[in-house]
Please model this.
Amino acid sequence: MSVATEDPMARWKPAPLLPRDEEREFSLHFVVAVLCFLACLAAVAAIGADRAASGWARDIRGEATVQVRPKLGETGSTAAARAAETLAGVKGVTEAAALEKEKAEELLKPWLGDAVLDDLPIPHLVTVRLDPKAPATAADLHRALSAAGIDGDVDDHARWLRDVERAAGLVRWIAFGVFVVVAAAAGAVVAFATRAGMAAQKDVVEVLHLSGARDEFIARVFQTRFGRLAFEAGAVGALAAIVVALALKLLGGQNGFTPALPLSWWDVTAVSPCPLIAATVAALAARLTTLRLLRGWE
Amino acid sequence: MRYGRSPEVLKDVAFTLAPGSFHFLTGASGAGKSSLLKLIYLAHRPSRGRIELFGHDVESASRNDLPFLRRRVGVVFQEFRLLDHLSAFDNVALPLRIAGAKPDEYRDDVAELLTWVGLGQRLWAMPPTLSGGEKQRLAIARAVVNRPDLLLADEPTGNVDHEMALRILRLFVELNRLGTTVLIASHDQDLVRRSGMPVLHLYDGKLTRHSGEARAEPRSTRPAPRDETPQADEQSEFDLGDENDFGEDEA
Model:
């Protein structure tokens, strides 16, 4: 029996120009993976917060409340019923219903208790559900009430909507800020590691330099090494974040983390660009550090 | 030339290497041989004075031009400076990779060169497993693989026995015959004298003697055709005839 041996020359490929430094690379790998994990969790949390804010805004935007003031000789319930009937016919309203006195008292009980409710003038309210596609405006509702001779105030919750949207915007900016800080930290760590790597591999760098390597060539050696390392670390960090997010999603039930921070199954895939972003940041940091150090040589 | 604020290690050294010439650079330890070589292979810049390499004023050359000048200079370092994490093959291929050649273009050339220096059976060996003589020849192969116009060697026979020193020097003579300008720093006066090659002698940082075709006026070191350039003594002890005598060395 003959065994075919492959010619080593045929399968030769140029070896990496930088030697592996297992200990240093493990530390850097770990730190970058942790940073990526935190960034991914921040991104997932931001997505959940954004989704929650959007839901709240949608709910607020889809409803209006009308407080009716009855005329002389008219009961509050009658006035509210008449207002509900009028508003139900307005274009852009899907449903209008008078809030029953008992239900209004139920809503107030947690805040005021039983004792004083009988003495309080409970407002006569009509809740209006608006067509989400083409909602009626507060002016539309007010006009309809006036036409029917009903005195009342329309609250379209615009003030609350502004607050929710402001909060959602803030969450987005915080998420972006966390991303920038984490990216800067990752860049700084890689720059430090590049500096240490160049010091440790000074002999290799000198041989490359004296053999006619351009600064670009040497920078590419380091940026490839650290870019690849950060890609791997970014993948590990993103994967860990996905596992944690999925676990929280499973524990949190249908709503995600909590009802206040809903999360869909697809939201966790938002962290998938993490390895590429990590690799880009690391490669850029390594490249700039190497070029700066090389220019300081002469 | 001086290092930092230390006294000058080279003073008023002026010479020109004719293209295709072969010189020894001699002098006691500390005379400035290595410093002079470092200036020529552009590891350092002179603190004063002027160096012209291949017709280019080094001082006025841009940073982007220097790598291309360095590629025309092959250097055999005194301490070899092989990359221990690369195989013999990868070490020799390094200058070609740096120059941007594709592996398929130089694969066979590298193998042939390693065979020529007697390392045909050690292509994939890592430098730490090689003997002193093998390392020396590997360093030489790396220095000449890019067919440099100028070959510099710093004490290339300092770490090998006399027989190996003769073999290495024969290799340099052979390279010189192929048109490469050669400058070898050595403190082995006996070897230099027996070679019959022209000598540049440094003493206390000054060039005290030069013979042969080393000349005072500036001139490019780019090699000229063989029949136009002065050559080493054809009857020197290192005359090779048609082929070198490197066998496969001991491990």
